[in-house]
Amino acid sequence: MKNVENDELKTNFLKLIQREVASFSRTVSTDQGDWVVKGFIDIAKNIYTISIDTKVISKIMELLIFPNICAFAEKNGFKIILSKEQNFYPDITFVDKNGHKYAIDIKSTYRKDEKSVNGMTLGAFTGYFRDRKSTKNITFPYDEYLGHFVLGIIYTRADDVVDERKIYGLNDLQNITSVVKDFDFFVQEKYKIAIDRPGSGNTKNIGGLTNIDQLKTGNGPFAKLGEDVFNDYWMFYLTKDMAQAAELPNPLYTNLKQYKEFKNIE
159 an active-site residue? Predict the structure, then answer.
């Protein structure tokens, strides 16, 4: 019965925040779809254009939508707790009047074409993800959260090349090219947009979908299998280095097909 109640609470929270983020694009973009941010300004009123660097864009986007997130929390009776450090999970913790906690991680990525994005990682599959009582690099222990969600931001990079060395004045504001445009916001439970492979690089992070429609609808490979399968898969997933450290010849599995065979799942 408790699981049913928790599922209902998660579903209600998801519906509330999905309804809210549908209006976020109006906050960050002009009527033409361009980013409202043009650059950084100093005390001499010089404007410096923004780098196309995804980390820079992501941080500014978080600052822009934060008032919207605060308004959502106040309107729906949630308390907000922000992460203590930049590398802590999650970015935002929502707590309802009964003490239920909901984790929101903000992720952004750019379109590669009309149907796909560059990709996003969905947090670590080691550390606090495996030791669910741990308080290291996480605001509250992982298993204290009723749900884990991703607030995703998809954008398109500008067609024009921006000269980052050029300095503008206030009178030039309308002539400065926005480095990104055409924003799309979505919220989904983390497990529904996860894939069965780590994200790019050597970091031990869960990989995310790259298909835009699947991201927005939460139609990843774990969506039908359920969160319990997602948790089990990633809690025992091993990279080659992790397998060697555990004195295993090879990882137990490296994809969902092998995992199902290993677990004898139809």
Answer: no
